Amino acid sequence: MTRRIEVTFDYRCPFARNAHEAVVRADQQGVADVEWWYRAFSLDQIHVGEDETPVWDRPEGERGSGVLALEYGIAVRDAFSDHFLDVHLALFAARHDKGRKINEVDVLHDTLATCGLDPQEVAAEVASGRPLAALAKEHSEAAGKYAVFGVPTFIEDEVATFVRFMERDRVDDLERVLDLLPFARLNEFKRTQLPK
C-alpha cells in the first residue's frame, strides 16, 4: 500500500537540504512506496511575534530572507511540476553549496535557467500571487494543525515528526526514518552530543 507523506522545506535550512536530497533521490528512484508531497514552511514566519504582521502580508522586500525562494519553489512545484525536483535541489545547492543569496531575483533566475526553465515564466507565476497564498496556507496549516515548528518535518496520518539528518543524500537514513514514523509511542530521541 502506498504511503502519503508530506515533508516541509525552507531552502535556508541545511538540515532540510540534507533530508530533501535523500527524499528527492528516493522519489526519483522509487526506493520507497511513498507518494511524496513537498510542503513549504517559512522559517521567517516562525520568528514573527503574535501581534506582528505575517511575512506574506508584508510588502515585497520586507518578507524575510527566505520567502522569495519559497515563492519560486512553489511556483515551479505547482505550475511547472516536471521541473520541480531539479529546481528544488538546485535552490538548496544555490544557498548551501554555492553560498548565494536566494532572496535575490538574479540568483533565482540563474538557478531556474540552469534547470531548463524560462525564468520570466516562473516570475510571472510568482507575480500572480498564487505561490505566496499557497505559502500562507501551507505554513499556517502545518503550524496550526500539526504544531510544526521547523524543517524538515514529516507528516503522515495526521502525525508530524521533526527529523534532523546529519549527513547529505542518505537514502538509507531516510528509510530508517520511514520505518520509525508509524511508531507513535516514541516522542523524542535526541543525542546530547554528536560523536566526533
SSE inventory with pairings:
Layout: E1 3-9, H1 14-29, E2 34-40, H2 43-46, H3 67-79, H4 84-96, H5 105-114, H6 119-127, H7 130-146, E3 153-156, E4 159-162, H8 171-180
Parallel strand pairs: 1-2
Antiparallel strand pairs: 1-3, 3-4
Describe this structure in words.
The protein has 196 residues and is α+β, with helices and mostly antiparallel strands. 47% of the residues lie in helices and 11% in strands. It has a four-stranded mixed beta sheet, sandwiched between helices. Strand 1 (3-9), helix 1 (14-29) and strand 2 form a beta-alpha-beta unit. Helix 3 packs across helix 6 and helix 3 crosses helix 7 (130-146). The protein is globular, with a radius of gyration of 16 Å. The mean pLDDT is 95.
The amount of beta strand, in percent, is 5-15%
pLDDT below 50 for ≥5 consecutive residues: which ranges? none
The number of distinct β-strands equals 4
Question: Helix tally?
Answer: 8
Mean pLDDT across the residues is 95
Structural class, by secondary structure, is alpha+beta
The oligomeric state of the chains shown is: single chain
Helix content: 40-55%
What general form does the structure show?
Answer: globular
| Largest pleated sheet | 4 strands, mixed
Integer-rounded radius of gyration: 16 Å
Termini separation:
40 Å
Q: What's the arrangement of strands in the largest beta sheet?
A: 2-1-3-4
The secondary-structure element order is EHEHHHHHHEEH
